[in-house]
Design brief:
CATH architecture of the largest domain: Alpha-Beta Complex
Largest sheet: 7 strands, mixed
CATH topology of the largest domain: Quinone Oxidoreductase, Chain A, domain 1
CATH class of the largest domain: Alpha Beta
Shape: globular
Number of strands: 17
Structural class: alpha/beta
Strand content: 15-25%
CATH superfamily of the largest domain: Medium-chain alcohol dehydrogenases, catalytic domain
Number of domains: 2
Radius of gyration: 20 Å
Length: about 350
């Protein structure tokens, strides 16, 4: 089969698209003909070796959608011809958190595409527990762009921050995958949403999907803008997946008794923390990673019924994977980047 892969870590120069061994399924696994694969910043970090996959060469990709072509002997939930979307979470099933249903806290948590072989290939072998049924009226590109970012944003806001109607929520980097999902989730819960982005075009998109207040962080200081507009109060919840570049400002703009919830740090992992800001304002600092199967089902149901609209900035053949990674690293456009196997790609389908 054809697959995206790399044999060593590094820049986009290490990315290849070519022949790769066909996957073989076990008794509990399903063989999926991949129709579309969604990219995330995770793919960039993994390519660079942060963290390093368990084996090289490595096929990246945590998100994909496709059609079942073969099932193992013990598979009960799927049959050939079923349309499916991938849930990339891998849980041990035995630790104290898994036994309590808090699988997102699994002590041996892993992810497809990060720690083990991913799904950016013509075919993928996956455990049936890592697949959910895809309705006939949802296209593969939409489905492939949604799982990682929407379940991440859902857990951050609904489960961890416990947002309520009329809460004020600041979403940093609203043009990215997690950011544009967080804007929609907060707006759908009845929150007042602030969004930051690096251009007026990106902010226009953020407004279209539910942001009430917009800040171009290339031109204005988001702390000054929000403090001025809220008479110094700030916001109830800050969604910060940026890290060093925004961390101190996030602490500053959070209201007394507010919360900062984080799932990543694309600008750097070791920001300085003004500890008095945390205790004097009695802030909650909340970490969040991916989601549980139930959270995945809840948020994807809202993607499938159209409540949430994954935005896709571009769809391209897998052979253009270098360009796809460059788009992510250079922060081009609004929303997700999706790749399609060259054997399935027709540019007329994505005009």
């Amino acid at each position: 089969m054809q697959a995206i892969f790399y044999e060593e870590h590094g820049s986009t120069d290490v990315l290849e698209y070519g022949e790769f061994p066909d996957p073989e399924i076990g008794p509990d696994e399903v063989l999926v003909d991949v129709k579309a694969g969604g990219l995330n910043h995770l793919d960039v970090w993994t390519r660079k070796g942060m963290p390093s996959p368990e084996e090289l060469p490595h096929v990246p990709g945590s998100d994909a959608a496709g059609v079942v072509s073969e099932v193992g002997d013990r598979v009960t939930r799927f049959e050939p011809g079923d349309r499916v979307v991938v849930d990339p979470n891998l849980f041990c099933g035995d630790c104290e958190f898994c036994r309590k249903g808090e699988t997102s806290l699994c002590v041996d948590f892993k992810m497809i595409g990060e720690h083990v072989r991913g799904v950016h290939s013509e075919q993928a072998a996956l455990h049936e527990d890592n697949l959910i049924h895809l309705p006939d009226d949802v296209d593969f590109v939409t489905a492939a762009s949604a799982p990682l970012v929407f379940q991440t944003a859902w857990r951050m806001l609904v489960t961890r921050a416990e947002i309520q109607q009329n809460d004020s929520v600041l979403v940093h980097g609203a043009s990215g995958g997690v950011g544009h999902a967080a804007v929609q989730i907060a707006a759908n819960e009845g929150c007042e949403v602030w969004a930051t982005a690096s251009s007026e075009e990106k902010l226009e998109y953020a407004s279209e999907i539910g942001a009430d207040h917009l800040v171009n962080y290339e031109e204005d200081d988001f702390v000054d803008e929000i403090k001025s507009a809220t008479d110094g109060r700030g916001v109830d919840v800050v969604v910060d997946h940026v890290g060093e570049a925004t961390w101190d400002g996030s602490l500053s703009v959070a209201a007394h008794g507010g919360a900062i919830v984080t799932c990543g740090a694309t600008s750097g992992i070791s920001p300085e923390t003004n500890i008095p800001k945390v205790f004097w304002k009695q802030l909650d600092i909340l970490g969040s990673t991916m989601g549980t199967p139930g959270e995945m089902d809840d948020v994807m149901a809202k993607v499938f019924d159209g409540t949430f609209e994954p935005r896709v900035r571009d769809v391209m053949p897998m052979s253009e994977i270098v360009r796809a990674h460059e788009m992510l690293e250079d922060r081009e456009g609004f929303g997700s980047v999706v790749v399609v196997p060259d054997s399935e790609y027709d540019p007329d389908d994505y005009e």
